[in-house]
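Researcher: Checking consistency across runs. Here is H(+)-transporting two-sector ATPase again:
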Amino acid sequence: MHTDPGNWHRIHTNDIPTIIKIVFWGLDKRLAQRKHFPSVNWSVSYSKYTKVLESHYETTEPGFVELRTKTKEILQKEEDLAEIVQLVGKSALGESDKITLEVARMLKDDFLQQNGMSEYDRFCPFYKTSAMLKNFVAFHDASSKAVATGDITFAKIRDSASDLMFKLSQMKFESPTQGKDSIKAKMDALYNEIQERFRQMVE
């Protein structure tokens, strides 16, 4: 939460606990050790502004709230699978769980991780955030539907769609200086490519 330091003297001391509780960023030592910045643990951090802003989100970028919910579900499931992976390894997981782990990794490395010193990642316009999530979720959902047929494995997806996975990892490098129309056109093109590739894969 950004607050003008000069205004703190105007805030009644009884209000301070309430203000502090509105937004909480839980710093994570493990993320810092991995050079993952910002080192904020998404699972313990929260904001009470979430619901308040939903109407704005839907007006500005329709579908964003659902994408955010889906993203949180993927990350939460990955945490739930962590103990199983430690005990028996990734190879023992079902195909859909392998997809969850891979997409969660991409979300952490290629979406949540930020390089604030770079031009492309110094800030992220809302339209870029929404478009990136749309493509990550599209890849997750298309992959999940593909393995549900029983004829396609995650290994096959990884081999057949490695170029798409690379393109997903490169979305963050699109600089906001290009302008909204240019970035959205590129993101939409990737979304359509994901849909078409998986349509061909399951035929």
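Researcher: Does this match what you'd expect to see?
Model: One thing to look at in this run: Residues 62-202 form a domain with the Bovine Mitochondrial F1-ATPase, ATP Synthase Beta Chain; Chain D, domain3 fold (CATH 1.10.1140.10).
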